[in-house]
Write a structure and sequence with these properties.
about 325 residues, eight-stranded mixed sheet, two-stranded antiparallel sheet, 13 helices
Length: about 325
């Protein structure tokens, strides 16, 4: 954990705006590692950002300053990931999902946030949607960025969009293991393995780092007790599919909660989900858009465009 703390500190040094990083204690003794940027801007609805599988607060570094110019921004490590507590999750998909959602709500209560603009990427988008179903009063606008776990798995394999090479490689190597077990087995060679599987991450963050800082960060986020990873495995049918697809439940979000879905034009996620969500919610605001030149990690592939889109959405709230 000390190595993760050190590499994250290097990342957060890039922030220009005032920020506060600390643990938020939950009533059940779990702790959520939280970074708040521009805490002094209290007049507008805060933006809360939820990272994806295997990530953490540091991966938002290309977005934090821009998105906290006119409002407070909160981002945190999901329970079981990053520097947050790593409890034992229920082994069934509904129980694991509920544990995540409950931790987000108790975090919000502990933070004293009345309502928020809630943004989630990938797994974070899945959990943000589940949260919005259960706590619609707390969500002013739901922003889903390349959300994982929405579509039903097609019976015809030819209808499945091919995942990127690194996903296929990880799946073939790991078999029934937890998705990132290979990193823990690799030990000190883990950062090099991240760089080998995901050389694109170094390019995405090249404006800030010309070394292996991001690869080290991803490695140390995932080299510990695989608590959240085990929960994710319980929730997934395979790496690309959820056991409880969110498309079957999206209509349960209260009608007055607006939803914007942002995809990378080159993503491996099924972008037709946005259109299907519109059909599921005919009397609600649903907007879907694609950002050219971006893949799954839209926020890092095209950060300037992504930030501008999210700022526009936030400004429409207040």
């Amino acid at each position: 954990m000390s190595q993760l703390k050190n590499v994250e500190a290097r990342i957060l040094q890039c922030l220009q705006n005032k920020f506060l990083a600390r643990y938020v204690s939950l009533p059940n003794q779990n702790k959520i590692w939280t970074v708040t940027v521009s805490p002094e801007l209290r007049d507008r609805t805060p933006l809360v950002m939820v990272h994806g599988f295997g990530g953490g607060v540091g991966l938002w570094i290309l977005n934090m300053d821009s998105l906290s110019t006119r409002r407070t921004l909160h981002t945190f490590d999901l329970l079981g990931f990053g520097r947050s507590s790593r409890p034992t999750f229920p082994r069934d998909p509904e129980g694991a999902e509920d544990e995540f959602v409950t931790s987000i709500e108790t975090w919000r209560e502990s933070m004293g946030i009345p309502s928020m603009i809630l943004l989630g990427h990938s797994l974070g988008g899945f959990l943000a949607t589940s949260y919005s179903i259960k706590y619609p009063d707390r969500v002013k606008h739901l922003i889903l960025v390349d959300p994982w776990g929405f579509p039903l798995r097609p019976a015809d394999p030819s209808q499945v969009r091919a995942p990127p090479t690194w996903v296929k490689a990880v799946a073939s190597v790991l078999g029934r293991s937890n998705p990132l077990a290979v990193l823990r087995v690799a030990g000190p060679w883990g950062p090099s393995l991240v760089q080998r599987f995901r050389p694109d991450f170094k390019r995405k963050f090249a404006d800030f780092f010309d070394d292996d800082t991001i690869s080290e960060y991803i490695y140390h986020c995932n080299a510990q007790n695989p608590s959240g990873e085990t929960a994710f495995k319980a929730m997934m049918e395979s790496i690309g599919w959820a056991r409880r697809p969110m498309l079957e439940r999206i209509h349960l979000i209260r009608k007055d909660v607006p939803i914007t879905m942002i995809y990378g034009a080159n993503t491996w996620i099924d972008t037709s989900t946005g259109k299907k969500v519109k059909l599921q919610r005919p009397d609600s605001y649903v907007r879907d858009l694609e950002i050219e030149g971006a893949s799954h990690h839209v926020y890092a592939d095209q950060p300037h465009i992504f930030n501008a889109v999210v700022e526009e959405i936030c400004d429409s709230v207040d």
